Predict the structure.
Amino acid sequence: MRIKNINDMCDKPCRCGSWLEHWKNLGQQPLPTTCAAKGCEHIPVAGAFAQKDNYFDDGWFIVPLCQKHNRLFGACLDIKDGVVLVSSRLSKSCGSVPAEAPAAVSTPAPSDQHNEIAAVHYL
Ligand SMILES: [Zn+2]
Ligand SMILES: [Zn+2]
């Protein structure tokens, strides 16, 4: 199968922490020992965004690639038979990282008790 590396259209990783973890979680299988690119024997280090190289299927997928192939933005790669393509769509099992979560620890609001007392005037 031929895919196109569209990794430069980088998205925030989901709750899995990285797209490689996402691939492992949703692919439900251990990481292959070698990069998905045909003929490459390097260890996969990253989950790269990829699209199938045809006009009929424009879904985005994650494929495990080695550092070199992961960096080939826009390149078309032949990938090995049997490589599992995991949808990059966030599944219920991971979900997106909550955007701009409010700081967990907020400084307590300064007490305005003193001001209240000071504001009391005895006529
Ligand atoms: Zn995920
Ligand atoms: Zn490779």
